[in-house]
Amino acid sequence: SPPSTMALLQGISGASGAITAMTCFYPLDFIRSVIQTEDEYKYLGTIAALRKYTQEHGWQALYKGLRSMLVCLAASNFVYFNVYNTLKSRLQNPNQQELPFLSGLLIGILAGVSNVLSTTPLWVANMRLRFQKNSQSNDGIFHTLQQIYRNEGIQGLWSGVGPSLMLVCNPAIQIPCCEVGNKHLSLPNRATLRRYGSLSCWVNAPWAIVMSSLSASWPSSQAQR
Q1: How far apart are CA 223 and CA 215, in angstroms?
Q2: Rounded distance, CA 139 to CA 68, Å?
Q3: What is the pTM of this model?
């Protein structure tokens, strides 16, 4: 397949994976935000907070803002993986199996910057929807975008873009680490690798996430708060 088609497919795959994962675990992500922002939940554990929140608001409330979150995740992952694989295909030598780590890191940073600059308005609107106090409001993400632009101007749509740009180091480190892990854990037989390729992803992904978190994204996320 042409490189542009492969990059497009990678973007669609990244968006699909993010949507699936977030749909499954959204209540945990939601209750994490509740614990961080509401004093009455601050000192509760995850299970206790889930129980208290569902008793007070119903289990449906745990999915508040899911639709707008999925829009943001789909857009972000599509842009990131599309740009990443497009740049990778242009820079990678046809005889070269993998890019050097530093080259992959640079491509990851460029893809992350592209993602942040193009999708920050969606994330700003998503956060406004998620934490709005008016429970009767059912404004969608695109209506919220219009309201932000009308009330705050173009700068309101890109508020917080600075800290977000600092966080591009997370996927920029994570994906090259995962590719390095795949290279070293690859099984010698290609047929066997195809058969157990998903297993190597399960092994490499947590390692890559830990590496990216310890090296840069954790301090950046704390600074963002």
Answers
A1: 14
A2: 10
A3: 0.70
